[in-house]
Design a protein that fits this description.
Order of helices and strands: HHEHEHHEHHEHEEHEHE
Structural class: alpha/beta
CATH topology of the largest domain: TIM Barrel
Helix content: 55-70%
Number of strands: 8
Distance between the termini: 131 Å
Oligomer: single chain
CATH superfamily of the largest domain: Glycoside hydrolase/deacetylase
Length: 306
Amino acid sequence: MVNDGNNDYHIHYEMTERNKKIKKQKVVIVILLIVVLFMLILILKSLIGLIFKTQEYKAQVLAVQEWEKTEIARKEEEERIRQSRIPKLTQEGKDNMANIYTSETKRAFLTFDDGPSTVTPTILDTLKQENIKASFFVLGSRVDALPETVKRIYEEGHYIANHGYSHSYSAIYSSPQSVLDEFNQCNESVKKAIGVPEYNSHLFRFPGGFPGGPYVAIKTQARELLTQNEILYVDWNALSGDAETTKPTVEFEMKRIQETVGSKNSVVILMHDAQAKKATADALPQIISWLKQNGYEFKNFYDIIK
């Protein structure tokens, strides 16, 4: 048979077409592989991003949980401190008050009447420097005049007790009920100043003291009325003498402290932080020093009324 070249042409054509088809298939496969690889990269990137986001979310959740725990602990501590500053009269407290002047160890209660005034911050500065907590028998009228000072007294851990509202003998001792009314009026002023609606000191000091004087009968009846309302009273058994003269000096007050403290173990010391008692603020560092030298430990009525 004679080869006219047609068979070779057809064979060459078929091979060429086959090669083209194979090349196209390879190109398609390569493209598909590239697409698959790109998709895998995108999926991997998404997975990595999801993992990071999950870890970040977990970290945020843990941070929020930790913050919540810290916040709860902070609020619980604030409430604990707040509750510790609200006097709660118990039977133990009543028994302690009944024996306030009796102690096997030496203890001194620094008490200040008739404030607050512009003298009070100086007294507070000294007490803060000495890390001593005192007790302030405040007047409601003075509380209304200087609420920020009262708030400082409270926040620095001193005991805010009650000395009535007016300090006007004719008003407060007009009847037993008037005594209770003045206590309540003063207590309302204190609650407003310190921002603690449930505050009640449960502790009153009669202006002029309880014993003697022309109002002793009213005071005696008022004492019973106060007791019925869970209010105790306390006087003093030592004093600075700052109410005995119009112009007390540091030397005079030191002398009176030494004379009236004497050999007592438990002393409730009467002083004043009224406007005219700058000498008391000046004498306070020496009074504290003398008491320390004589072995006294300082207390306030938070240690008594529990």
